Amino acid sequence: MVRFMDRLRRNASATPDDGTDGGQRLQPFRRREMLHRALFTISHDGPDGPRRTWTVDVRMKDLGWVAGLYLDGARQEEHDVPAAFAVPGGTIEVKASMYGITRMHLVLDSGRERRLAPVAGTAEDLRGRLARRHPRLSRTIGVLAIAILVVNLALAVPQAIEIVTGLPPIADHVGSFTSPVSTPPWLTAVLVFAGIVAATERVLMRRHNRLLDIETIWSSF
Q: Region Disordered: which residues (predicted)?
């Protein structure tokens, strides 16, 4: 707790910068930022009292993401994602893929986890509203996303094996493999686009499966 308080004092005395977050105060979310910014918040004890508002502002930076931690709107620190922010009684863990936020949890010292809620107006919030207002439609979208990822995964595996076994060192020892599936360029483009949309849907709902969502890596090529 002493180290945590020292860090807060250092951050409070820091000179405002002109970085992406616009200085020391949390900037309002704008709809035009939906594709490259996400905001999540949670009510949790602060260093000087209970029920304080902690907010994580995640923005796209170059080829990755950067996350800023705010306490009642005042910036505390900033790290590249994946990031772990120490807060009283726990740690806020942040992870992301190229499609969005994959983990945003407060992990308490007891081991219990609490998920941070998306701020109103963000893509995650809008997708959550759709799920609450139209659960049947939401489930249909989720099933379609899974089906698309399964199809793309089934196509990606033999193609990946063909690429790997085509490398001279491997081909000389085990031989080469030719994928039995060949898709025309237009269909490949459609499947890649559909895979990106499906992967984004999964991220917005913060759903992840180690086998199924490995396809999200392939669909980015």
A: 1-28
